[in-house]
Amino acid sequence: MEPRYQDIAKIMSRSISQTGKLVLRHPSTKGKVTLEKLKAKCIAFFISDFKVQKEEFPSLIKTYKALNNPKTCFEVVWVPMVDQSTTWTEDNKRTVSSTEASMPWYCVWDPSTLNNSFVQIVKKEWHFQGKPILVILERGTGKIKHTNALPMMELWGPAAYPFSINDEEQLQEGLSHVIDSLFSTNKPNMDKWVEDGKIICFYGSHNEDWIRRFLQKIEFITMQTNFEIEITYIGTKRKQQEMPRILTMIKDISKSRVWSEKRILSFWHNLKKLRRPKKKYFSMWKEVINILNYDYHADGWAIIFGDSKQEVVKSSGAKLIKCLDSFTTFRSRIQEPKDFLRFINEDLRVKHAEEHCNGMMVSTSDGPLQEHCMECGRFMD
User: Fold this and answer.
1) CB 295: neighbour CB atoms within 10 A?
2) Which alpha helices (DSSP H) does 313-364 contain, by range?
3) For residue 215, which of 30, 113, 230, 254 is within the disulfide window of CB 3.0 to 4.6 Å?
4) What pLDDT, in 10s, does the model give residues 234-255?
């Protein structure tokens, strides 16, 4: 007897239609096939609302066109989710038919045959909540390799094939080194700055007034201590249309380094697509992830550090400005860069105790995350 998709049989044959057969149709040929006819391919279930718009899955279309060939045997099947509590109307049928016509891959022939038990699996086990997901089935076995490969496809495209969780973790590890390199420059690089005992600062804001005040404070501290501070503006994901003016302003008033507009846009585009890592691949990873939180603040933010043995100062802009304002009160106790970092952190903790945690839910490709407060470590409300 010809082997069947074992995992798919467990999940779907008892759930989809009375015959246990998932019938598919190709929009170009209108021919009908069963899922088992495609078992020699790497199949991806594109699961979405039946009113999904083409603009919601451009990376999938691009990747499909690149991989739908005899070598990779990659195939996509659209599974439109239908509200089981509503009547399957003629208008709904026309909507599905119209959407199906814009897709280059197979589609479920009749979405109204999707039994409620399967819908519950999609919602509870595959965590479908209305936003499109891409469930990957292993070629030949039907084993579930990933319950949502869309984020990794958006970031890596065809290079992520065959889109398993292991593939994603390997790519994620590689990406950590890319981000690490983003925080280095060639002449000199960050390792050389650390070796020379310099203080390193990355900051971001869309608020020109805050940027001016922050740069003035840093310049004053540099003059008072003779510490070398390598300061670099790496932008923001907010109000990016104002970026050219901000970059010009910084170059005019300060010796601060600035990333190019192209580099800034690329960094923030990739950063917001990162999945939360299961491992800390390099020492600054947590601080990089925290940027997602800090950038929501209206004024600005900064991360200041030395070598790996020293403290890391990380703060929203308004609070950091207050700490830098009080610099003269502890100036006499600062002999080395590590003293500066320690006293700034102590002052931040005092000011934090007087205020409330800045709490929020951060959206990532894994969904909303409850974050620890970056300054006191507690879970935020």
Assistant:
1) 20
2) 317-325, 327-330, 337-353
3) 254
4) 888 887 788 899 999 999 998 8
